[in-house]
Inverse folding.
């Protein structure tokens, strides 16, 4: 599967739907309240993330798409937190409609240890009135001309009324813009004329009014939904059985690519975001669904409403190369794994670089770095940061390929990417015991040295193999 988008401009996707803020309160529980027979949770930290349609935005951002978001929020503190989270995903939020008539939807989860104690919802799920419908429609219609794809994320919280949904579908399709829908409820008539809907098995069963226990039943339901709703296609996700794509006179079953399932939360958001990203890049719907299937296989192996990066997907679809896809990971996965390894007494070593053309000098350097501890983590500059450091003609190899090559080295335990000009924030997240740099640096001049030493770690400077460098290789190639 071709996942090289280096020559493409970042596509713009319009996301419309029910946005919410997932608020997690983490703590410990070791006693019962004297006031009532309930547990007392001692709060240690609080985190927030985008939920609902916001998680679609987060997934699109992780893949590299630009997003316009249209939805509704209350004029309250949660709205400010929601906007900040959307901005963190580089989403345009001018289309967010504010109102005093309903609160920003918040799902607050109280978690002690690994156990969710309770959930508190702040929401008004009733259908929005005519005035708010007018504002949402106006905001969406204004942004459709700039979009490559429109995603409607219906979480049943009142925004995607029949009038809003049908109006957006009609306006987008009249301009030739595909509309992808993550549906909700039993009556799918409001989605009539969409390009694609993506119900799961349970949702599809509710829509057709019968159970779907067999493959034949799924085929019948997929054909019925596509035909009755006048859809270009219908995709039914089937959990551990993969997914089924229904197009005109053609059904394609895609087996699951999940290796281990920890949490299916938000998997539907990852699926529709992945499809939107590929379709926006001009890929076929079947190609898009194959990528979405791979993305779903990755995201269910994570905890909570997670996202999947393009680098992770490149590694997953290239797993036939024999490189372990457990090595090339995002920062959150890396930090989780390192926490376990550190608890086992493992010594963590960190280094970083562009590694554009891997040569003998790199191999020797990484082998020597690995010998300084038990786990070697390599921070890999992403393509944009390489261009800033090395010039517009670099890198020669995009970040997914560079990560694959590094992952094939036995000395390397993990590879992750960073986009800043320095690896300072990555070093802060990794918290290595040993920070390694190559060349003529002084230990105190290495970025992150003070952080590592403050934790009791050390900084090591290693020599490069004489006469081996990417620049030298390129110069010799130019002369030849």
């Amino acid at each position: 599967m071709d996942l090289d988008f280096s020559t493409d401009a970042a596509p713009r996707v319009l996301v419309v739907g029910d946005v919410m803020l997932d608020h997690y309160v983490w703590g410990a529980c070791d006693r019962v309240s004297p006031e009532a027979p309930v547990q007392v949770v001692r709060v240690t930290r609080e985190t927030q993330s985008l939920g609902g349609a916001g998680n679609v935005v987060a997934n699109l951002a992780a893949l590299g798409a630009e997003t316009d978001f249209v939805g509704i929020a209350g004029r309250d503190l949660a709205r400010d937190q929601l906007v900040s989270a959307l901005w963190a995903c580089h989403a345009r939020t001018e289309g967010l409609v504010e109102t005093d008539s309903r609160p920003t939807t918040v799902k607050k989860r109280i978690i002690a240890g690994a156990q969710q104690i309770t959930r508190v919802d702040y929401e008004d799920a009733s259908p929005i009135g005519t005035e708010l419908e007018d504002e949402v429609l106006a905001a969406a219609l204004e942004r459709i001309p700039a979009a490559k794809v429109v995603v409607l994320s219906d979480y049943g919280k009142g925004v995607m009324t029949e009038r809003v949904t049908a109006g957006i579908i009609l306006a987008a399709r009249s301009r030739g813009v595909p509309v992808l829908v993550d549906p909700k409820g039993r009556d799918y008539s409001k989605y009539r004329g969409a390009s694609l809907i993506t119900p799961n098995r349970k949702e599809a069963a509710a829509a057709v009014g019968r159970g779907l226990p067999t493959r034949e039943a799924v085929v019948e339901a997929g054909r019925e939904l596509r035909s009755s709703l006048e859809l270009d296609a219908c995709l039914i996700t089937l959990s551990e059985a993969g997914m089924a794509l229904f197009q005109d006179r053609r059904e394609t079953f895609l087996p699951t690519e999940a290796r281990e399932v920890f949490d299916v939360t938000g998997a539907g958001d990852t699926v529709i975001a992945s499809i939107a990203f590929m379709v926006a890049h001009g890929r076929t719907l079947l190609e898009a669904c194959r990528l979405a299937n791979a993305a779903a296989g990755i995201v269910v192996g994570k905890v909570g409403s997670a996202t999947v990066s393009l680098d992770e997907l490149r590694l997953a679809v290239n797993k036939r190369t024999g490189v372990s896809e457990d090595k090339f990971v995002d920062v959150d996965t890396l930090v989780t794994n390192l926490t376990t390894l550190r608890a086992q007494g493992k010594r963590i070593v960190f280094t970083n670089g562009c590694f554009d053309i891997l040569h003998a000098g790199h191999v020797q350097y990484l082998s020597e770095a690995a010998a300084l501890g038990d786990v070697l983590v390599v921070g890999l500059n992403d393509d944009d940061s390489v261009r800033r450091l090395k010039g517009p003609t670099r890198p020669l190899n995009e970040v997914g390929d560079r990560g694959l090559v590094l992952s094939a080295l036995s000395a390397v335990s993990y590879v992750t990417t960073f986009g800043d000009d320095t690896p300072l924030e990555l070093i802060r997240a990794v918290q290595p015991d040993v920070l390694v740099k190559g060349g003529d640096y002084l230990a105190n001049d290495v970025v992150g040295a003070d952080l590592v030493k403050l934790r009791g770690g050390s900084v090591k400077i290693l020599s490069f193999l004489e006469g081996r460098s990417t620049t030298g290789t390129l110069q010799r190639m130019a002369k030849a």
Summary: The chain has a mean pLDDT of 88. The chain is about 35% helix and 25% strand. The radius of gyration is 24 Å.
